[in-house]
User: Fold this.
Amino acid sequence: MESPPFDELDLKLLQALEVDGRASFSRIAAVLGVSDQTVARRYRKLVAEGGLRVVGLQDSLRLGRDHWMLRLRCAPEGAEAIATALARRPDTTWIGLTSGGTEVVCMIVPRTQGDHDDLLLGKLPRTPHIVEIRALQMLHRFFGGPAGWLVKHGPLTADQVAALGPPPQPTGDPVPITPDDAPLTAVLKRDGRAGYPELQRATGRSESAVKRRLDQLIASGSLYIDIEYDSARLGYTNAAVLWITAAPASLDTVGRALAGHREIAYAAATAGPSNLVVTTVTRDTADLYAYISGKLGRLEGVQHVETSPFMRRVKQLTYQPPIR
Assistant:
């Protein structure tokens, strides 16, 4: 049975959470002009039926950690099992089956160099059904991560966004995340809206100390609150990865231009066979074609584009095993 589309209030709530995933229901309600109870009820429904998850994530690129995009060409009978195994790993995001189910695309943030070597040099090469491995290191992010896609499509006005109090852009060096922060970040990775009493119990710190540390990590850009949801219920049923080659002198210009396109949910410069990778979200294949042949095709400096439509998205920020 097909899920009903999100209505305008759902979209406003999603964008409000994208602006500040920890904003109280009362603050969101005041901005949206509805009651606290309405916001709470809609939130619970979005979680139960719309795939909504609010999570706290470390910004690996800002923290100077390696960040990789993997392309795994597989025998068709093994692709889904490989994607599912990768989805269970805590260091993976954005896993999808592309190329008619013969390729797994995966974002990975190894926690240590040992994890990186174990996966890329150990486990994956020995995995049956993997025919080819391509690993592209992320060099620079143009859009995505803390910058949410709904800002390009959402219904909130500039005044409403300002009233939610979006955090200022981080400046200076990020605050290092230490082993002492592990209990805090672990809870937030499960639930980015976890209350201070829960964070206090998990960390053993006072509530004021927890709040102070969380504010410090978020303000410096080391940690950010993100959301995931079923984008198909927004009417955007087509997602794809584009592997783009730009002339080196045009790389930064092209990347910045891509970041401003409504169709782009993520854009980064990479080391590898192509030097840019983007994910697109469009209404259908006709819109994807119009984008590739139009705005993207007209960008000066773009030399080559390879398109890999998602056949199925296995994992976004979190992994929910399918119901059998």
Notes: The first strand starts at residue 53 and ends at 58. The chain has eleven helices and ten strands. The beta strands are 53-58, 68-74, 92-98, 103-108, 130-143, 223-228, 238-246, 264-271, 276-282, 302-315.
